[in-house]
Amino acid sequence: MDILLAKPRGFCAGVNRAIALVRSALAEFGAPVYVLHEIVHNTHVLNELEEMGAIFVEELEEIPEGARTIFSAHGVARAVEEQASAMHLRTIDATCPLVAKVHRRISHLHSLGCSLLVLGHKGHPEVEGTCGQVPGPVHVVSTPEEVAVLPIPASAKVGYVTQTTLSVDDTRELLNAIRARFPLIEEPDRTDICYATTNRQQAVRQLARQCDLVLIVGSKNSSNSNRLREVAAGMNIPAYLIDQADEIQPDWLQGKKRVGVSAGASAPEHLVSGVIAHLQSLAPGKVEELNGDDEGIHFPVVKQDEGGSPPG
Fold first, then answer.
1. How far apart are CA 7 and CA 203, in angstroms?
2. Which among 34, 54, 95, 282 could bridge 49 via Cys, Cβ 3.0 to 4.6 Å?
3. Confidence band of 310 (pLDDT split at 50, 70, 90)
């Protein structure tokens, strides 16, 4: 059984930066360092950082006053920043720069007096952080049906931003519904879906055309990993999301000649290597990597000032 690897796959620049910020904080200041929400959505990454002394919490109230605290790559609402300041927390902002760009755009749309939409999944940390950038109502929509029942007049001036990890295909359907209902729409020059999400989805499409099974390495609560599985499944190819190699079921492989493997933007490459080794132990074959561009994008890990987060 042959294995075909997607390219690009795995860690993106924002994830690399967020993990590096936690590691550098632990190295410089020692444990514990508190992290509000999962720094990235990957079980293995979280376990490794916990072993180093990171403590992940869901609420600021779980953090001792004055403790060193990191905001996750998904970003946080302004109210969270204000509460952290009132608690005298020494904060480090690991928000992905591309998410921070979405924050700036929704603030700009609010200043223009637009009715605000966020295309994304309700309850996702990135969406909650984006909604919390502005006062007043922000409507989260994830299906065309939800667009149809929005309590906004059709004549309203509407602006939208997008969760960075959405499926390009799903967003297209949503935007068609929004444009049809709200002709006075304020649109960006390009989608907010990040380069890494788009590149990985395109690579999985290419992968699925050449395979009879696709495995996506990523955790179940990873939005971008789930979207990769959906992209392959949407091409009528059996596709599964797995956290690690031992989740592969032998019956998935019955009669399969070529298995495609990719990984979400928060999944480390050593997990992909583990999947390859496991598949090779079951049915040895060739391992090839798709032709694809090296993304070559890096976000600098800027040293943070004592007691606060950098701007932007």
1. 6
2. 54
3. very low
Assign 289 to helix, strand or coil: strand
* Sheet with 213-217, edge to edge strand ranges: 239-242, 213-217, 258-263, 2-5, 287-289
**φ/ψ bin of 247: left (φ > 0), alpha (ψ from -120 to 50), beta (otherwise):** alpha
Does the annotation mark 289 as catalytic?
Answer: no
Identify whether 8 is preceded by a cis peptide bond (ω within 30 of 0).
yes
Amino acid at 46: L
- Catalytic pick among 28, 48, 59, 126: 126
And the tokens for 89?
């927390």
Average pLDDT rounded to a whole number, residues 154-158? 96
Please name which of 129, 156, 155, 127 lies closest in space to residue 140, comparing C-alpha atoms: 127
DSSP string, 167-217: -HHHHHHHHHHHHHH-SSEE--SS-SS-HHHHHHHHHHHHHHTT-SEEEEE
Q: What is the pLDDT of residues 87-128, one digit of tens each?
A: 999 999 999 999 999 999 999 999 999 999 999 999 999 999
Tens of pLDDT, residues 242-292: 999 999 999 999 999 999 999 999 999 999 999 999 999 999 999 999 998
